[in-house]
Specification:
heterotrimer, A mainly alpha, B mainly alpha, C alpha+beta, A: mainly alpha, globular, B: mainly alpha
Chain lengths: ~375, ~70, ~525
């Protein structure tokens, strides 16, 4: 029984990872206020921290090449245990979709559509995502390469455009924050954009040529994305300096200051439109994985009939999830990294360990049988 | 507003429901109904201004109570 | 409801009566067509007359031939479809004047027939037919049937020769450099144009007839060993599944067999130029030629094909690449310029440089309509002008364009009905939309959708609109090949955004051609052998 038969190429998979993380650069405000001008350092720390995490993901995908995360849970923890673990993941996927939608709504509200109610924007957007999810994985990931190229080009243009207002003294002093805040920042960055890569374990079985080396593409995508994020953060820090910690959309403000050829100012709207494209990509993937997870959970043949009620649910959930932006930021900074870490890091690790142990036991049983037979 | 929301829900209902019945995919139908009724109930609660506590907030207070927070 | 039932009943009764009358009468046309040719000349001719009716262009010419003119014969043909030179010189003259039937004509009727076929008729294509229906069919397609007293079969002599348009330069895809021939309405001319360009024996032209009333000749051309057999089979199967009474142009076929009938994007390509079709066949595509249409369909089609012109490959790569990028830009402008203008002037004024903003505001001062209405009016009047300009004869068309340009543009602005900036934006849009002729239709629809979205949601609306278009594009497939596969870098990129030099385009497009992938085996870059002049 397979819900999704479509295959995507490994390069598409890699660039999907890139654009998935790249579109999260909106969230840099979460740690800018904590680590200030040293934020670029925590991107490096976060990358280092996430390498073993990625190793766990890749090992899981390698262990069960034809199974998605939910199916792996069933296999490893048995019927009931697997379902309990899977509920966590499904809730996590839906919440991520909702949070990203809400971020997008907030961003659009703040940047280009000041008067339109948030719910309207979210509803329009979820309809778009539903449409793309309806067509399946191929359509959801199709534009990953183009979007990566566009986003990189825009990043380079924006760096050039803001070059004259960059002040490299903004990076000083380095390592002058309390140690605690470095740990806090690293924790946030490794759970909020980077650890979310766990959703790609739902897609991994559909990658073409995964037998040859999914790891290369997984790591490759991750490193490209980390590099792009690093550039964004360096640019924002150099442009904004001390103002960083007070702004809710640092990248957006940095571009607001940019000027091209004296006459074209305010290129931030352009950036906003592009960011909408990228966030669309991220939300589609999240939405897709959520519904796919549900369909794998209940072992049904098609996820398509569930799209519309699920999108209604997501819209409603996005209204109720937080009362206001401040609550969103406090929770995301305060407790979210902990339970995200539980789902993104500890659960997959346990899954991997249990599967190894099971395998070892099986092997031991097999060899003892052989021995007794001999 | 209430009418508008109900209208949207009825439209969603009409798009998928008859097809599912026709194809006799009752398992999907059951899950469909779960999602659908959850969304409907939540949206009515929102419209009636009844506060709904989100799971995020619950977990937040839970973790705060065991001091797992920055 | 009752009305409907009674109507049905009446209809049923009438039909029953009709069929009774017919069976009571002699025989229906269908049944006559199944009858064999008897050999009694008068009876056979009677049957033929019954099937074909008394149309004035159907000629049945009875004559006597043989040594002492003692054999009775008849020729059946359609005036205007046959070459009359051929008819008199190749058939009538040798039959009536040829005396060498002498020795056989009394011995055996069969031998006489062979003699007539082999030694008298001066034609390269003579076949025998046994049924009245077959005879009628060949006569209708322009051949001449020869019947004779005592022969229980008809000789069908190929005499097709009607007036046709000669090969001329096509109106739609004119080029500065490159072949100027275009397809014509004549089926054989078109196949010959292709055959002349591809001399490989692997070029297959599989023949089909579609259309219950028109019996249109349709031919599926591809190169065996290059084209994907699956795609060829799909094309043929879809063609065979057409059950319509008429195919008047390849446009009919396109609509009957395309993958996405509800999409605004064309998923089957077409061209009027043999060199373009040849190039596409060589890339592994399948061409569909239909009698009566100078447009040849090619499938599968990719979105980027609309941005490729045959001239791109005839001029050197640098300029070709530049032009191609310009085309993408023009397409983007043609679908989004009015929408972006509206979003800027009504939602995001801060994006416009201050001086420009003042200019626009000054130009718009005193115009009565909101920008959105202004844009819609202008975009629609442009579409009207375009439509009027195409259909009218050329001299009148010029008048239309003058009226359009002066009244719509100049007078409307100076009268203060519309703002000058809007006229400029719509004019740019119009000019840009002609840069990509194949997507002009879809661009017109997208433009209006984006316009509406931009005027209600500003920049967010444009983003949503573009996302919608992108999702739709990604969901399209043409005969199993993703429509936008090159656009998304999942394909050979040598011939997409830029046109690489010919020697660098080493492979045929992936997915379309699955066998014999290598297109050329050139040294990269080619270094012509240079022999220095020897000193001796």
């Amino acid at each position: 029984m397979k819900v999704e038969n479509a295959k995507i190429s490994a390069t598409q998979f890699m660039f999907s990872i890139v654009i998935f993380i790249r579109s999260s650069s909106l969230l840099s405000a979460f740690f800018f206020s904590i680590t200030k001008q040293d934020s670029w350092l925590i991107v490096l720390f976060g990358t280092v921290v996430c390498i073993p995490l990625l190793w766990v993901y890749v090992a899981l995908a390698k262990q069960y090449p034809d199974k998605s995360l939910i199916q792996i849970n069933d296999e490893v923890f048995g019927r009931i245990g697997g379902k309990i673990v899977s509920v966590f993941y499904i809730w996590f996927f839906f919440t991520l979709t909702t949070l990203n939608l809400r971020d997008l709504g907030g961003f659009v509200n703040k940047s280009i559509m000041i008067l339109t109610p948030n719910t309207v924007i979210i509803s329009i957007f979820i309809i778009l995502c539903a449409w793309s999810v309806y067509y399946g994985l191929e359509v959801v990931t199709r534009y990953s390469i183009v979007f990566t190229i566009i986003s990189t080009a825009i990043l380079i243009v924006s760096i050039l455009a803001t070059f004259n207002i960059m002040n490299f003294e903004n990076f000083l002093p380095i390592f002058h924050q309390p140690v605690n805040s470095y740990i806090h920042g690293t924790h946030i960055i490794s759970t909020i954009p980077f650890g979310e890569l766990v959703v790609f374990l739902m897609i991994a079985p559909n990658v073409e040529g995964k037998e040859k080396g999914l790891a290369k593409y997984f790591y490759g995508g991750f490193f490209i994305a980390a590099l792009l994020i690093l550039l964004v953060i360096l640019r924002d820090t150099a442009v904004l300096g001390n103002m960083l910690e007070f702004l809710s959309l640092p990248s957006f403000e940095a571009l607001r200051l940019a000027t091209l050829f004296e006459t074209i100012s305010h290129i931030e709207i352009l950036f906003a439109v592009l960011l909408i494209l990228f966030l669309f990509f991220k939300i589609s993937i999240l939405f897709y994985t959520s519904i796919l997870a549900v369909s794998h959970f209940f072992k049904i043949k098609s996820y398509r009939p569930l799209i519309l009620p699920a999108s209604a649910l997501i819209v409603v959930y996005s209204i109720t999830i937080f009362e206001n932006v401040i609550m969103h930021t406090t929770i995301s900074r305060g407790t979210a990294p902990f339970f995200w870490a539980f789902i993104e890091m500890i659960l997959p690790f346990i899954t991997l360990m249990v599967s190894y142990i099971k395998k070892a036991i099986k092997k031991a049983a097999g060899s003892s049988k052989e021995a007794s037979a001999a | 507003m209430m009418l508008f929301i109900l209208f949207i829900f009825i439209v969603i209902f009409l798009i998928d429901f008859p097809r599912l019945i026709k194809k006799k995919q009752f398992k999907i139908l059951a899950i469909y109904c779960c999602f659908y009724s959850l969304a409907l109930v939540l949206s009515i609660l929102i419209l009636l201004d009844i506060p709904v506590t989100s799971p995020m907030v619950l977990i937040d207070s839970l973790l705060k109570s065991i001091n797992l927070s920055y | 409801m009752f009305n409907f039932i009674t109507k049905k009943l009446k209809y049923g009764l009438r039909r029953a009566q009709e069929s009774k009358v017919e069976t009571a009468d002699v025989k229906s046309n269908k049944e006559i067509e199944e009858l064999p040719i008897t050999g009694r000349l008068s009876a056979d001719l009677e049957l033929t007359r019954k099937v074909m009716g008394t149309s004035s262009d159907i000629k049945i010419h009875e004559f006597r031939y043989g040594t002492n003119s003692e054999l009775k014969g008849a020729l059946i043909f359609i005036d205007g479809l046959v070459n009359s030179d051929m008819l008199t010189q190749g058939i009538l003259k040798p039959l009536i004047l040829g005396k060498n039937l002498n020795s056989y004509q009394k011995e055996s009727i069969a031998k006489t027939l062979d003699t007539v076929k082999q030694t008298i008729l001066c034609s390269g294509d003579v076949t025998e037919k046994h049924l009245i229906g077959e005879l009628v069919e060949s006569v209708l397609s322009g051949d001449t049937a020869f019947l004779s007293e005592g022969f229980d079969k008809a000789l069908i002599i190929s005499t097709k020769g009607w007036d046709k348009r000669s090969i001329s330069e096509p109106q739609t895809e004119s080029v500065v450099r490159g072949p100027r021939e275009g397809f014509t309405e004549n089926f054989r001319t078109n196949t010959a144009l292709l055959r002349r360009r591809i001399k490989s024996p692997n070029l297959r032209m599989d023949h089909l007839t579609i259309g219950e009333k028109t019996d249109t000749n349709v031919c599926v051309a591809y190169i065996e060993g290059v084209a994907d057999p699956g795609i060829v089979e799909t094309v043929k199967a879809r063609l065979k599944s057409i059950s319509a009474d008429a195919i008047l142009d390849t446009g009919y076929i396109e609509q009957y067999i395309e993958d996405h009938p509800f999409s605004m994007f064309p998923t089957i390509g077409y061209s009027e130029k043999p060199d373009v079709v040849t190039a596409r066949i060589l890339e592994g595509r399948v061409a569909i030629i239909a009698d009566g249409s100078p447009f040849v369909l090619t499938a599968p089609m990719l979105f980027i094909e609309s941005f490729q012109s045959s001239e791109d490959y005839y001029i050197r790569p640098f300029h070709a690449s530049m032009i191609r990028i310009l085309r993408y830009l023009a397409f983007f402008i043609s679908i989004s310029a009015p929408a972006i203008f509206i979003a800027l002037t009504t939602f995001h004024q801060e994006l416009i440089p201050t001086t420009l903003l003042f200019t626009i505001a000054a130009a718009r001062e005193g115009t009565p309509f909101p920008t959105f209405l202004e844009a819609i009016i202008l975009v629609f009047s442009f579409e009207i002008l375009r439509e009027a300009g195409i259909r009218l004869p050329r001299p009148v068309g010029q008048a239309i364009s003058i009226v359009g340009a002066l009244i719509m543009g100049e007078a409307a602005v100076s009268a203060g009905l519309v703002g000058a900036p809007m006229v400029i934006v719509v004019a740019i849009t119009a000019v840009a939309s002609f840069a990509v002729p194949e997507q002009t239709d879809s661009a017109a629809i997208m433009r209006i959708i984006l316009l509406i979205l931009a005027s209600s949601f500003g920049g967010f609306g444009i983003a949503v609109g573009f996302l919608g278009i992108l999702i739709h594009l990604a969901s399209l497939k043409s005969f199993g090949i993703p429509y936008c596969s090159s656009l998304t870098f999942n394909h050979n990129m040598q011939d997409s955004f830029v046109r690489m030099p010919l020697w660098a385009m080493t492979k045929r497009p992936k997915g379309i051609a699955n066998e014999d992938i290598i297109r050329n085996d050139m040294q990269i870059p080619p270094s012509p052998v240079y022999q220095p002049p020897s000193n001796e």
